[in-house]
């Protein structure tokens, strides 16, 4: 087990990456695009990301299970309904979409590497620990769910 495995809240990871994207966006080559045009492109993507996150949280709330990603062993239900029919990690997918919207606002294509970094981090340090806990708790039910629904999309 790594020192980072299931230790840093995913929202904090996304926030730190967003800050790094913002700092690097001023130094990296970009394209000239008016602020209003950037917002016109980024706003629908931002709203999509927020909607995906919210749908994940609401599904957990309906199932009356924990939303805390650092305590997956406290899950009281395996959520397979709602947005969880399409993604095993919609909240993380939503964060990635929000980071993509931020990259559009920054108008620097290289800042999209922040989205890649987020996905790689989650795939290495967060999701495997969660999946192990869920498999321990829900056994064959989780194995069938994992076989049926993709990790991201």
UniProtKB/TrEMBL annotation:
One of its GO terms (cellular component) is endomembrane system. Gene3D superfamilies: 1.20.120.1630. Keywords: Membrane, Transmembrane, Transmembrane helix. It is a multi-pass membrane protein. The chain crosses the membrane at residues 41-60, 92-122. It is found in: Endomembrane system. This is Protein-S-isoprenylcysteine methyltransferase. It comes from the Bacteria.
